[in-house]
Design goal:
The protein has one domain (3-234): Dihydrofolate Reductase, subunit A. It is 23% helix and 25% strand. It contains 5 helices and 11 strands, in the order H-E-E-H-E-H-E-E-E-H-E-H-E-E-E-E. The longest helix is centred in the N-terminal third of the chain and has 17 residues, at 3-19.
């Protein structure tokens, strides 16, 4: 087997749970890129580029194989991402922003409809919604007792709109909330061999008192071409 063939086989293995997901129910994959010591940014907020090209290619490859990519409004405000497919061949997914209180900028790049992709903003039911560009769909869901939007209800509402396979891409707080709600099927953690020693940590889940309460998902490990490592965690196992 050639090196190229081996890389292709590894890519197919990474994507197989997404491609073979049950079409009759939602499937959610979340991803997080971090340093070896679990940091996603320096104390000043700098995060580019903790992960290298192969990890970024992998994220774009997932985008090309899901129905929608979802981020929290904090990521949009901080980074103004496009959330499309640029680094690999494939189609652009729909773009979904969790925006409970209408903070998303009107001219955010992910709301640009020139590529013809669906754009959706998820907001809390019963609240006034600031204007969004033409064609953007507003999805309203209920809030949990803590005032945060319900991830399970969000996944269900998107599934009812034909968005079956979802990538929860960021930020870390949004990924954590979806994991806490048991709304994630697979978690892809892309670890770069770099030590930051300080800065913002990645996942922040509900505190536990005993190790027996920890999540221990069945995990596959894939070394990437330029040194990063992908941990593919089955959160339904």
């Amino acid at each position: 087997m050639t090196v190229d063939a081996s890389a292709h086989a590894a890519q197919a293995a990474m994507l197989s749970p997404i491609l073979n997901a049950d079409p009759c129910k939602p499937f959610v994959v979340a991803q997080l890129g971090q340093s070896l010591d679990g940091r996603i940014a320096t104390p000043t907020g700098e995060s580019r580029w903790i992960n290298k090209d192969a990890a970024l290619d992998h994220v774009h490859r997932i985008r090309a194989n899901v129905d929608a990519v979802l981020v929290g409004v904090g990521t949009v405000v901080a980074d103004d991402p496009m959330l499309n497919v640029r680094r690999v061949a494939g189609r652009h997914p729909a773009r979904v922003v969790i925006d409970p209180n209408g903070r998303i900028p009107f001219h955010a790049r992910c709301l640009d409809g020139t590529d013809g992709c669906r754009r959706l903003v998820v907001r809390q039911a019963g609240l006034a919604s600031p204007a969004v560009p033409a064609g953007v769909e507003i999805v309203t869901v209920g809030a949990l007792p803590n005032g945060k939007l319900d991830p399970v209800a969000t996944v269900r509402a998107l599934f009812e709109r034909g968005l079956r396979k979802l990538l929860v891409e960021g930020g870390a707080w949004t990924v954590s909330e979806f994991i806490n709600a048991r709304a994630v099927d697979r978690l892809h953690v892309l670890v770069a061999p770099v030590l930051l020693g300080s800065g913002k940590t990645g996942l922040s889940l509900t505190p536990i008192n005993r190790l027996s309460e920890a999540l221990r998902p069945a995990t596959r490990v894939f070394p990437l071409a330029d040194g990063d490592v992908l941990f593919d965690c089955d959160l339904r196992s």
